[in-house]
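Action item from last week, closing it out:
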Amino acid sequence: MRGIQLSGINEWQLRDDLPEPVPGADEAVVRIRRVGICGTDMHAYRGNQPFFTYPRIIGHELSGIVEQAGSAVRHGIQTGDPVAVIPYLHCGECVACRSGKTNCCVSMRVLGVHADGGLCERIVVPATHLIKTDGLSFDQAAMLEPLAIGAHAVRRSRVMRGETVLVIGAGPIGLGVMASAKAAGANVIAMDVNEERLAFCQTWARADHTVHAFHDPHGHIKQITGGDYPTVVFDATGNAQSMEISFDYPASGGTLVFVGLVKSRISFDDAEFHRRELTVMGSRNATREDFDRVKEAMLAGIIDVGPYITHRASLDTMTGEFDRWLDPAAKVIKAIVEL
């Protein structure tokens, strides 16, 4: 079987001798058709991804076709079904799983991070972690995962219709947060350091306002909100400095949600934190409910992944494209590998 293995930092290896996957009870073999590339993969390539070990086959934004169903049929999975993969393998028994928070399982294993992922021809997946995607293209199905992360953050924050939210970071995850916040009826302010990306926030995610992070952001946010500031702030940058500064932006009594992940410590002014009685949340991964919400939004035409996917490669050409995708000049929003 063919696939691409990340053998070490900055070291790709195109393999044609990978073992064929053998499904166990209630597992299915999925022939992979699309693999989205995300910040997790890019950080792993550069050697600054937490929880990552080498060698590893990356890839957790996955869509494909069920090639072998076996006993997975008892879960409604049939051979030939088009599917997306929920890549978060949870134990089902820990305190988080027992309370329905499978996205932060104590023993979480994420495909492409803790276990080999889908940047290969075929992969074994538990039937419980497959979503049938009839009516969606392979591109759309592969984008369920990154967009579900934004949907989960918005659902966790309990954003209400009419609230004003600020989303810091207009990368793929931040854009997904904006799209879900708009779907929830919020007024969205997008903040980033890139003018072109801010323009994309307005056309694709329908952001109501944009703020450049280097051009008096406090003043602009104060003006937009009439001095109240946003009631919910999402930081999707994965940047420690941005995450520390983000404590400045929530309204008194507001909520700050960290969607991005950084391999670092962050600090904040405790007196100011208490003065405004802020709520700080972490938002990790997503649940099936979030995948289903994004799927319905795609089927309804609310989310269009066409402009969101900006770069493509095949299994044979990806390793030669990856360094270019890391260059900001390439203007990558979402890159995808086609099999």
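Closing note: The CA atoms of residues 133 and 264 lie 37 Å apart.
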